[in-house]
UniProtKB/TrEMBL annotation:
Domain Major facilitator superfamily (MFS) profile: 1-162
Record lineage: Bacteria, Bacillati, Actinomycetota, Actinomycetes, Streptosporangiales
Molecular function per GO: transmembrane transporter activity
Native species: Murinocardiopsis flavida
Keyword Transmembrane among UniProt keywords: yes
Main location: membrane
Protein name in the entry: MFS transporter
Stretch list, region Disordered: 142-162
SUPFAM superfamilies recorded: MFS general substrate transporter
Length: 162
């Protein structure tokens, strides 16, 4: 299943890079996260090993594009002098999530029905996608954000133009 997920991720990454996107990174990340979460949840209903491999490959299609989008968002938001560190945090968060998810999955599989395990695996991804999608529509002050752009990072007095 990991091979199917990885193959799907490679194909998704190639397709994502070949396309020109008109939507903003926040919108894309919300959509990619939703696709990944729904695919994970659907994997629990696969009737056999072949169908599970196919759904795993479908879930993988969203992985590389979502990671690429996250890195692009960090590059846009972080000051030039902090981009390496900011991208390292994205990588750390991803690796911590995968590690924690693998541990939680192992515990769940030993005591819960497989369908529920897949649904629970997809739930945090869907929740994050919903939050990202809401963030696209309204910022904390209730002002509509332009979904085609990431907001500019806040400037500290004496540090840069403005």
């Amino acid at each position: 299943m990991l091979a199917a997920l990885s193959a799907g991720s490679a194909l998704g990454g190639l397709a994502y890079g070949a396309l020109t996107w008109r939507s903003g990174a926040r919108v894309r990340l919300a959509l990619l996260g939703s696709g990944f979460g729904v695919s994970l949840a659907a994997a629990g209903f696969a009737p056999g090993i072949g169908a599970l491999a196919a759904v795993s490959a479908l879930a993988g299609v969203f992985v590389a594009p979502a990671l690429t989008t996250a890195y692009l968002m960090v590059d846009d938001a972080a000051p030039v002098h902090a981009r390496t560190r900011a991208n390292a945090w994205v990588n750390t968060a991803f690796n911590a999530g995968v590690s924690g998810g693998a541990a939680a999955g192992g515990l769940m599989v030993s005591g819960l029905p497989l369908e529920l395990c897949f649904a629970l695996a997809g739930a945090p991804v869907l929740a994050a996608a919903v939050v990202a999608g809401l963030r696209v529509r309204v910022d904390a002050g209730g002002t509509r954000l332009d979904p085609s752009r990431s907001p500019a990072p806040p400037r500290r007095p004496g540090h840069g133009p403005g």
